[in-house]
Amino acid sequence: MTLANMQLTVGPNQFFWKAEDWSALYDDLANAPVSRVVLGELVCSKRLPFYQDAILPAIETLMAAGKEVVLTSLALVTLKRELKATAALAEIGVEVEINDLTALAHLPEGAKFSVGPLVNVYNEGTLGWLAKRGATRICLPPELPLSSVEALCQAATDAGIAIEVWGHGRIPLAISGRCYHARMHGRMKDNCLFACEDDPDGLEVDTSDGTPFLSMNGVQTLSDSCASMAHQVEALSEAGVSSLRLSPQSKGFVETCVQYRQRLDGVIDADTLSTELVRVSGGMRLSDGFLTGARGADWSGKAA
Amino acid sequence: MDHFSEAPIPRFPSPLARALRFMPLAPVSLALTRLTRNMATRHASMFRRLGEHADARFLLDPTDLPVTLCLEPMQGRPKITLYRSPPQADARIAGPLAALIGLVHGAYDGDALFFSRDLVIEGDTAAALALRNAVDDAELDIATEIENLSGPFARPLHKLIELAERRTGVALTRHEEDLLW
Amino acid sequence: MVMEIVCPAGTPAALRAAVKAGAHTIYCGFADETNARNFPGLNFSREEMAEGIAFAHARGSKVLIAINTFPRAGSENLWHAAVSDAETAGADAVILADMGLLAYAANNHPNLRRHLSVQAAAANAEVINFYGAEFGIKRVVLPRVLSVQEITAINKETDIETEVFVFGGLCVMAEGRCSLSSYATGLSPNMNGVCSPASHVEYIEDGGALSAKLGGYTIHSVGEGEPAPYPTLCKGCFNAGDKSGHLFEDPVSLNAEQLIPQLAKAGVTALKIEGRQRSRSYVAQVVKNFRAAVEAVDAGRPLPEGMMARLSEGQAVTTGAYKKTWR
């Protein structure tokens, strides 16, 4: 696979945005150099009513612009209303990306689906089992090292499915039953007053001596750093990865998509891309350590 | 959230500890080395459990005694050396003698002692953990091990243990998992 | 029926202690990365496992083998061998999390009972039934994100036995879906069977204050005489916005002893104790307490007084997600 053949997928927005900002993102993405857009609520079912009505128009806009459109399931399904929402996904008629296995239980036997990064696909056995169930594309968990990506790409080729990797964005590290935003504000989850809405890219969590470390997004915990495969796309392409997943952020996201496209097309190099990513985002720290580093937080590019 | 109080761990009586300051260390070191070598033969799996840490140097520091033990497992040919001022090592485990011996005998839980800060771990935490786990599995009984010991090295240890047992209430024989709290 | 006490054993000595203390069932793992407590000096060789199982069976206890990490691509044979060796050793069940491994075990070892590990984070009846239909699991260990009401509802909608954690370390995140540890250290529960590994922990004593770092990140710092919890990442003390403190979870451990009657009413089959990394004395003590508690509940007597605080992390306990206010 050549670099220029690598596609870009936009992952579901992980954060809680106002409905108009949410819609504006997808209007803008209609004209961005991306092939696939996964949308819908991934993190917290309580957010959905605020922008639910904007979802269908967004799907129409993106489809009209020639994008493949996919709906995500929730990452953790426990409540009754969440079970209902998950069951309803299968009936909308758009391809579903499962991010909790509960969603798969509702898909009709033999239906095609894709698998998101929050489903644990660590090995050939699981990949093969999902492929047999109808998976056509798997976005691998962000914590996988390059050696696993290579082995899984091989298995995916044999099974005739596509592999995507986490290409850009704060990394989803954990999901919980507890809402940390609510807890921090001294509220219970059921009465959270949507504290997470104030942090469109998550709330930075520092160590007690001031080192940026994580970010908080309701029931989800992400990395502080923004993963970027700027320096890794050649290795990923060689391994057989067919698509990079870019995760939405509040500042400069469409520009970010354009720059990744330019990187894949050989217009700009890794350092230029990295510099641009930091600039348009307003100073995010970058990392790519899960793939080749000693740990997830490491960055193989130049120090900022 | 509930907080609970706890029974204190006995401390080695300080007059006795002071007396130890004048004890010649070399014969005791030799005796302890002999003791641990005997244990190594009888509990080979204990040293296997150390895995990659079988070449580490451990400082066992009874904080109520004026001496520190340096344990070198040396792949199952262990050596113990006593020091008044401790050398460099990979890991240091420090606490009252009763806590250290109680750990060996399964009377205390290492994590619990650590949470309550009765036990301090420094240096290579993984090595210290491996030693703790290996010792916990071996179901050692120091008193029995000493009884099995003969020859010139046995005497100073016998005397020391006898003294300590009489005067401190420290757990010197293995408990069948009956706890001290 | 008396609820089943499922007790951890990190070493053969702990297994024997648990059996003697009255554990109905003991769970343990092989000494490699196939199990989620792959800690230095812990776990069982093949030979030790067979001996341990024989010891337990002779005294009427069962042994479950946890093979609950996610097999590494290119090395699945290591995990396949573990399943096969578990059957050979006479295990009463294996505890699995990975879909591929579940499928492998169901196809190749159909007579070996399969439990779904908490690492699979199966948090509702539909997905539990799905695992039952696809992989023939007989029991699920429920994730520690559910309330007693939700557990009751799950049991109404599934025939698969449920097992819940009642004591020990508490994961605040959905287990099996957390990469915090590998982000900071490169080693994760899912891939390496360790969380916040000791090899990456550094304690720094500074004039009575003790600070603990993990992979270079300061997790917490405690003053002289204050309890010093292990620097588990999610229980650290952090700053966010204008707040600082234990933003994810306090350094507490779970003690749901008082909820046993409610859990029994909720239809739970087995009560699980966390702590394969703990000593044999811990294991014996906790088992004795819980065995007495389930016997009391079964006989309709009040619960005996709890006395396990000393064993708890940071010496403070919580009932966790079982009470809804935890969220």
Automatic annotation (TrEMBL), chain A:
InterPro entries assigned: Peptidase_U32, RNA/ubiquinone_mod_enzymes, UbiV
Cofactors, names only: [4Fe-4S] cluster
GO BP terms, alphabetized: proteolysis; ubiquinone biosynthetic process
Binding-site list for [4Fe-4S] cluster: C44, C179, C192, C196
MF annotations from Gene Ontology: 4 iron, 4 sulfur cluster binding; metal ion binding; peptidase activity
Keywords: 4Fe-4S, Hydrolase, Iron, Iron-sulfur, Metal-binding, Protease, Ubiquinone biosynthesis
Pathway: Cofactor biosynthesis; ubiquinone biosynthesis
Statement: the UniProt record of this protein carries the keyword Metal-binding: yes
Residue stretches in coiled coil: none
Pfam families: Peptidase_U32
Family membership: Belongs to the peptidase U32 family. UbiV subfamily.
Description of how the protein assembles with itself and partners: Forms a heterodimer with UbiU.
PANTHER family: PEPTIDASE U32 FAMILY (PTHR30217), UBIQUINONE BIOSYNTHESIS PROTEIN UBIV (PTHR30217:SF11)
NCBIfam families for this protein: PRK15447.1
Functional description taken from the UniProt entry: Required for O(2)-independent ubiquinone (coenzyme Q) biosynthesis. Together with UbiU, is essential for the C6-hydroxylation reaction in the oxygen-independent ubiquinone biosynthesis pathway.
Protein name as it appears in the record: Ubiquinone biosynthesis protein UbiV
Species for this entry: Shimia gijangensis
Gene: ubiV
Automatic annotation (TrEMBL), chain B:
InterPro entries on file: SCP2_sterol-bd_dom, SCP2_sterol-bd_dom_sf
Protein name (database record): Predicted lipid carrier protein YhbT, contains SCP2 domain
Every SCP2 domain range: 59-135
Organism: Shimia gijangensis
TrEMBL record, chain C:
Residues engaged in binding [4Fe-4S] cluster: C171, C178, C195, C234
Name by which UniProt lists this protein: Ubiquinone biosynthesis protein UbiU
Pathway noted in the entry: Cofactor biosynthesis; ubiquinone biosynthesis
Cofactor: [4Fe-4S] cluster
Superkingdom of the organism of origin: Bacteria
Functional note: Required for O(2)-independent ubiquinone (coenzyme Q) biosynthesis. Together with UbiV, is essential for the C6-hydroxylation reaction in the oxygen-independent ubiquinone biosynthesis pathway.
Alphabetical list of InterPro entries matching this protein: Peptidase_U32, RNA/ubiquinone_mod_enzymes, UbiU
Source species taxonomy: Bacteria, Pseudomonadati, Pseudomonadota, Alphaproteobacteria, Rhodobacterales
GO biological process, one term: ubiquinone biosynthetic process
Keyword Ribosomal protein assigned: no
Protein family according to the UniProt entry: Belongs to the peptidase U32 family. UbiU subfamily.
HAMAP family, per database record: UbiU
GO molecular function: 4 iron, 4 sulfur cluster binding; metal ion binding; peptidase activity
Matches recorded under Pfam families: Peptidase_U32
PANTHER family to which the protein is assigned, alphabetical: PEPTIDASE U32 FAMILY, UBIQUINONE BIOSYNTHESIS PROTEIN UBIU
Subunit structure, interactors included: Forms a heterodimer with UbiV.
Species this chain originates from: Shimia gijangensis
Keywords: 4Fe-4S, Hydrolase, Iron, Iron-sulfur, Metal-binding, Protease, Ubiquinone biosynthesis
UniProt key word Transmembrane helix: no
